[in-house]
């Protein structure tokens, strides 16, 4: 079965790495058919365009560059057409950073699963892991 992974920062790259390793097993029931990530962004002092951590990892693992999609918005017609072309059974997101429109969500017959490193909706926002750790530390200090 084809799955599509969506993610961008380093925390998402570790999820992709696990999925790629699992899919390479001879008895795996799935394969990563495509990777979706944010477009390259200007970083560092030179403001050089660099791919996301997810794109970098995918390329380092030998994932085909033409199956790494970097749409500005997940509702772009050309992107949705490319996504339909890989026939995903399931999509998995981890810190993708883009709102997925209903037209996207209707494509995989098994749906889309969002993996998040903290408890939602309680610890959401720009730094959910840090917020969850702060709350844990506050509780520990009360003992």
TrEMBL record:
SUPFAM superfamilies: Formyltransferase. One of its GO terms (molecular function) is methionyl-tRNA formyltransferase activity. It comes from Aegilops tauschii subsp. strangulata. This is methionyl-tRNA formyltransferase. Residues 1-136 form the Formyl transferase N-terminal domain. It comes from the Eukaryota. InterPro entries: Formyl_transf_N (IPR002376), Formyl_transf_N_sf (IPR036477), Met-tRNA-FMT_N (IPR041711). GO terms for cellular component: mitochondrion. Its EC number is 2.1.2.9.
């Amino acid at each position: 079965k084809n799955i599509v992974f969506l993610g961008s920062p380093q925390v998402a790259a570790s999820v992709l790495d696990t999925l790629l390793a699992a899919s390479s097993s001879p008895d795996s029931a799935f394969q990563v058919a495509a990777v979706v990530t944010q477009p390259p962004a200007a970083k560092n002092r030179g403001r050089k365009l660099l791919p996301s951590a997810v794109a970098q990892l995918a390329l380092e693992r030998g994932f085909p560059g033409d199956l790494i999609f970097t749409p500005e918005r997940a509702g772009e017609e050309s992107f949705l057409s490319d996504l339909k072309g890989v026939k995903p059974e399931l999509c998995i997101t981890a810190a993708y950073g883009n709102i997925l429109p209903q037209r996207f969500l209707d494509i995989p017959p098994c749906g889309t699963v969002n993996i998040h490193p903290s408890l939602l909706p309680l610890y959401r926002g720009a730094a959910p892991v840090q917020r969850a750790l702060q709350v844990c530390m506050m509780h520990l200090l009360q003992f």
